[in-house]
Amino acid sequence: MAEISAKMVADLRAATGLGMMECKKALVEAEGDIKKAEEILRIKSGAKAGKLAGRTAAEGVIANLIDGQNGVLLEVNCETDFVAKDDSFLAFANAAAKAVLAVNPADVEALMAANDGALEAERKAVIAKLGENISVRRFVRYETAGKLAAYLHGSKIGVLVDFDGADEQVGKDIAMHIAASKPICVSKDEVPAETLESERRIYTAQAAESGKPADIVAKMVEGRITKYLAEVTLLGQAFVKNPDQTVEKLLAEKSSKVNRFTMFVVGEGIEKKQEDYAAEVAAAAAAASKA
User: Fold this and answer.
1) Does residue 122 share a domain with residue 70?
2) Of the segments 44-53, 185-194, 198-207, which one has the largest average pLDDT value?
3) How far is CA 77 from CA 87, 129, 147, in A?
4) How far, in Å, CA of 135 to CA of 265, rounded?
5) pLDDT attached to residue 275
6) DSSP 154
7) pLDDT of residue 49
């Protein structure tokens, strides 16, 4: 069994919001598997799934660009929030978005190599000026027969929406809603089968602990699944501007349809090095006393 470290316990606690001892016991039971431990805790406590991979941990910005029926959403990372606000860094992020729109590269590597490496040369120049590592992390480029709308929450959250409909405001409202409510897909048909199976397994275990008959347990599970699908799908969510109306009903009312969307959050899924300044000071003091 893997050794249960303090960091593993802390990470699980951050993901679930549960107590240290509960997290440690779950990790022991899961033999050090954090995902399995999180599932154990959810079954026992009824807590919602944590998102270890979704914690914002790195700095940078989200940039977007729309030109008619073509649009780009892009993330550029740096090491500090100070540099993320620098004009040279922001100019590079915008240049990268323009390059994606113009070149339509297959991936980041192709983007940086395009036009004889012009964007890569600009990246190196900004690094030399600002003294931090800077990189284009990811991007998405949409071409649509419909319409595009985008929303930036500051520079840390960005959304690009491909939609149909005459009302331009609908696209903007939906993009803002996605940034606020963070659905994982448009409709329940798009929820990954493995995700749904995991939720069903957890709800079944939770319902079984109630001691109720199997047929009642089955109905409880289906009720929880229905609620879960409403929470994580765009169409099932309550619209942020009018919680009495679902997004699906709003779109029907406006004769509109959302075809797809992408949301980027700066640093999502990147584990940032945790600096222990107290330990550094203590080590320095200890070294000085021996000198």
Assistant:
1) yes
2) 185-194
3) 14, 16, 28
4) 15
5) 47
6) T
7) 38
